[in-house]
Amino acid sequence: MSHKRKDLTIFGKSVVVHIREKIGNIHVGKIDDGHLTYMAGMSRNIVGSFSGKVCAVIDTGGDELYVTVPADLYGNDICYECNLRHILGDIVDRHDTLYCKFEKTCGAIMFTERDGERMFLLIQNESGHIGFPKGHVEFGESEEQSAAREVSEETGLEFVKYGDFREEYTFTTRENTIKTGVFFLGYYEDQTPQFQQDEIVNSWLLPYDKAMVMLNFPEDRELLTQAKKYLITGARR
After folding, report:
1. Residue 135 exposed, middle or buried by CB count within 10 Å (0-12, 13-18, 19+)
2. In 3D, which of 55, 10, 53 has the Cα closest to residue 178?
3. What are the residues whose beta carbons fall under 8 Å from the beta carbon of 200, sequence distance 6 or more?
């Protein structure tokens, strides 16, 4: 989805937060230009001025409120949307939009065998991206739990982890968001995929060479390359 904010430079900006009070797990304050901010990641009930970085913006439909974290926590797990939403709680109304600098998704390269040939499952979503089942991490989930849930939701398949394969990539989108994808390797047999109708528009079960041609993002081609190398080593489920 296209980013609706016009000012993308605010993310990562170093600011001095003048904290006035604490609401739940959030400190409320202002930065030097008077802009209201909520500061996450401060464990103690404190008042004063502290260095932070802007990691998210709450768009209330009229005003934009900044979310900051201490500079040393910028980019850590606390900055992902699921964790910020949990920390912010009712501060983010259901009509608000939370724009986060950092996003994390988890998924799996799912494969099976047909007539002795290893076949990889590819899916295409509404954006046209052809890749592997994946989705955003939800609060409290491990990476493997997120991957298993997303595989189940998007394909109806049970995720059976294959070995200790784990690969990740990070890239910056045109909207200045930093996305990290974490992928595992999953095997299935005697299962027929049941695809999520409102999100998956096409699917393919292909051998490695044809799958490499079909994938339309270099990050996914690199994932599949690493998966093939891993499978050649003879790792066992």
Report:
1. middle
2. 55
3. 123, 124, 125, 154, 155
Domain boundaries 14-100, corresponding CATH code = 2.40.50
What are the extents of the domains in the chain? 14-100, 103-232
Cα–Cα nearest to 102, from 64, 56, 168, 66: 56
Mean pLDDT, each 10-residue run in order, the chain (237 residues): 63 92 89 91 81 93 90 94 93 91 96 95 94 96 97 96 95 86 96 91 97 96 96 70
Tokens of 105: 């998704």
68 CB burial (10 A radius; 0-12, 13-18, 19+): buried
Q: Structure pTM? A: 0.87
Residue 110 backbone phi and psi in degrees, to 5: -95, 135
Report the helix count and the strand count for the chain, using DSSP H and E: 4, 13
pLDDT one-digit tens code per residue, 97-124: 999 999 999 999 999 999 999 999 999 9
Domain covering 103-232, topology: Nucleoside Triphosphate Pyrophosphohydrolase (3.90.79)
- Quote the CA–CA distance of 20 and 31 in Å, as a whole number: 11
Cα angle 46, 47, 50 (rounded to 5 degrees) comes to: 95
